[in-house]
Amino acid sequence: MDSLVPWLKGAWAWATGSAFAFSMVLSVLAVVAFISVWAMFAVWLERKASADFQVRIGPNRVGGRFGLLQTLADGLKLAFKEDLIPKDSDRFLFALAPAIAFCGAFAAFAALPFTPALSAVDVNLGVFFVVAVTAIGVIGVLMAGWSSNNKWSLYGAMREAAQLVSYEIPSALALMIPVLVAGSFNMKEIVAFQCQPTDGALDNESLVYWSSKGWLAFYSPWTFIAFVVYYIASLAECKRAPFDLPEAESELVSGFHTEYSGMRFSFFFLEEYGMMFVVSAVAALVFLGGWQPLPWISLNMGGLLGNLVFLGVFLAKTTFLVWVQIWLRWTLPRLRVDQVMVMGYKYLIPVSLFALLMMAAYEHWGVRYLPGLF
Amino acid sequence: MTTAEAVEQLKKDGFGDGVELWKGPKDETIVVARDRAKKLLAHLRDGRAFACDLLVMVTGTHMTEKKDAKGVLVREAGFEVVWHLRSVTQHHLIAVKCKLPPDDPRVDSVSDLWAAADWHERETWDLVGIRFTGHPNLRRILLPEGWEGHPLRKDYAYPKEFQGINLEVDAPWPTP
Amino acid sequence: MAHSVSSTVSSSSAAPAKTLLLPGEQRPPDVHIDVRTQELQINMGPQHPSTHGVLRVAIWVDGEIVTRAEPDIGYLHRCAEKIGESVSCIQYVPYTDRYDYLAAMNNNLGYCLAVEKVAEVEVPEKAQYIRVAAVELNRIASHLMAVGTYGLDLGAFTPFFYAFREREEILRLLEWICGARLTYNFIRIGGVMRDMPAGWVEDVRKFLDVFEQRLDEFNDLLTHNHIFVARTANVGVISPEMALQYGLTGPNLRGSGLRYDLRREQPYLMYDRFTFDVPVGTGIKGTVGDCWDRYWVRMLEMKESARIVRQALDQMPATGEIMAKNVRHLAFKSKAGEGYFGIENPRGELGYYVISDGGANSYRSRIRAPSFCNLSILEAILPGTMLADAVAIIGSIDIVLGEVDR
Q: In angstroms, what separates the C-alpha of C403 from chain A's closest C-alpha?
């Protein structure tokens, strides 16, 4: 968006005042369109992947042999459903909850750089912003559980509040480690750090060049630990199994969104798949080199072709991480709430704190893998 | 041990004439009067020779009077309670029966001897109407709370309506 | 979990509002804080994904800990025992399918054995072997359902499909032999409904050959999974004394360590001619008698049932009658008498107590449903556990509401 503003100002000089508003609206629309298409694709991926794990076929009727338009059909069906609001529920909160939950996931998209030239806003505090804004979703879920006037939904909301808030800590701590190494919160700069050339500036380099930093996941054992901790904590943030207590189907009927149907339910769905994308994108950007295809071998491309290649690589990595999330969901049973808390507080937080400490020490003494060796 | 041997042992253990062996057909059963029933069952549970630690079930039956073709009384009117007991250690199954008069179907509850009896006795009360004295919580278990009557009695009259729903067989469908 | 916090602070703040109390000071009497917490009563069911039927468990919880639980049954009561008195014994056999609908062959068998005992009917040998094969296949199907849905209760969605893939094959075999997939009406009084079709035995053998490997696959996925073990080991521990007190039988009793199986105690059909083990819970993952033990006993029993089916098919005589000679179906009359027969259902001891006075109908047929007795232990065992554990415990007891309510 930042690059849109001067272009708009230049092209339509008479629209100076509204150039900002114009570009903002365009960016928002672009992100909404992306989330919708992504959610369609992610749901299709989930259904096909789960079918594969479960010795079934999955959707294969709507939209060709692979059922590609199945999600569109389901979304249309949800849009046309009757809008039910329980009689004794808190109507205002009931209506507001899905919107707030969705906004939490949606706002994080503002800071995600898809390619070096394509991001909604170039946020200097990108990582911090994403962590902070995804916490808004907690409020939405709490509101949903409370306003449903249903004890089981309340249970889902209470469990979710405990779980999501607790797992923000190891998630954020784990993210601090690559920030420490790269020296910046800005996600573009973190990716630039990972594909930094060994000597000289980027302009001198050829198309393919060696970058000794490599992906942050393999930069140091502590960043690898950070990657694993972040991935597990992000599973809890997305309320995905094995941490799917808030929507534990077999215990709480449907958890906090039991009473929701139709379009409101589809908002929660969009929020869930939006969050999956956000956390996978952050992991891909910060730990897996963003838009660079290979760990130590980097591409130096620009212009439209370069950005398209980078976009493809970025989306491929994010989709892979989402696929691993789906894989874990359909394989593992669910953890009990006290086991979830134990996992978060007694295992992930100490591990991530220790890794942060060790990484700081390593950085101070300029060590990467083993002290005294290299 | 077989039931016949059990009766022999029980007679020696002090029950004397209070227990009888009913030879069937088909199952041999120990018959006991209702005032000694609980004492007998407790002895069957605790006695080393019997060690009946598993209560299989408690059955209640409403018996109507039946005379055969010659006018001889084949079945007395009244109620019957049968307890089936198993022993895991002694590997036997013993049935104990008790006859109750038709106007006063009461017998002692054994829910303090076996916790399984709790639900069995509630079901017997619910469906047959035999009252188990000393049961901590004798209320209906299968039928809803306000149901009247005990369905498994032979003189049970089907109710005409329940909670506003017409239960007659040829009743028209309710209009909304 | 419902708080009510009401703090009434004196509204006349003419006096300076003291927010801090110095040491030794008393809180002024007009500041009144009342915090009450009370137990939340929730209904689990009658419509609930994990109660395996229309069961309502009224649970009082304090946070996540259950303080009191009261099962409420009767939602599926279909007057089974009353119907037993109004239709003839022969006509009653299809009704018996519907009680424990997941192990319908066993239900048929129990009733037929009880009536055959009272009416003194002798079943031919080949019919008995066919009965054994059908009943043990049904036992495998029932246990597959139990372990599959148990994984589902705990959030493992995939093992359910693996279990049902096997179950689908068994249901196909049973449909081939009798025409129905769930409620068979195959085992009749005096024998079985029809002989095995050509090719049935080979298909059963083919199924059994791959079944053990598939079970190992299932074990890799669910049984030894750390999360599954963490959810089920040391949860819902039932001691053997408690199990006997509450009338628990079947895998629930064997999960607590007592090796008691009616197929060994009072061998009916041909069970004394087969070699099979009776698995018991040994507490390898946690305590003896926890949910994992009951689940593991079911897994091992499936392997034993496969063994029994193999032996039955091997030992079966090639030719023979499938129905007793002295059973005239259109005019079947039992003999006067009463008898109890208990068999080993996949869920425990299924018993029928039949009182007959010589007519076509029975005077009283009382059904001893294993799930009815197994369910009564919930009242004693749920208090003190967490809500998620309540789901795990109910799933491990493996109840079918059809036979709880009859």
A: 22
CB contact under 8 A, A339 and C230: yes
Q: How many structural domains is chain B composed of? A: 1
Please state which of the four CATH numbers 1.10.630.10, 1.10.645.10, 1.25.40.10, 1.10.10.10 is assigned to the domain occupying C65-405: 1.10.645.10
ipTM at complex level: 0.90
C-chain residues within 8 Å CB-CB of B42? none
Q: Which of C338, C400, C339, C340 is nearest to C370 (CA)?
A: C400
> Quick one: pLDDT band at residue C302, thresholds 50, 70, 90?
very high
Interatomic CA distance for residues A269 and B2, integer angstroms = 66
Report if residue B160 sits inside a domain: no
Could you tell me the two tokens for A178? Answer: 């690559």
Distance from CA of A353 to the nearest CA of C (A): 25
Q: Is residue B159 part of a domain?
A: no
B170 within domain boundaries: no
Tokens, residue C162:
């693996």
Tell me whether residues B127 and C81 touch, CB distance under 8 A.
Answer: yes
DSSP of B151-168: TTSTTPPPPSEETTEE--
Give the domain range for residue B142: 3-150
In a domain, B85, yes or no: yes
Domain boundaries, chain C: 65-405
CATH number at residue B84: 3.30.460.80
Tell me the C-alpha distance between C162 and C184, whole Å: 24
The DSSP symbol for A69 reads T
Rounded to an integer, the average pLDDT of C184-207 is 90
The predicted structure's pLDDT at residue A264: 86
Using an 8 Å CB-CB cutoff, list chain A residues near C39: none
Assess whether chains C and A touch, using the rule of 3 or more C-beta pairs within 8 angstroms: yes
Tell whether the model's pLDDT for residue C328 goes beyond 80: no
For residue B73, the cross-strand partners are B67
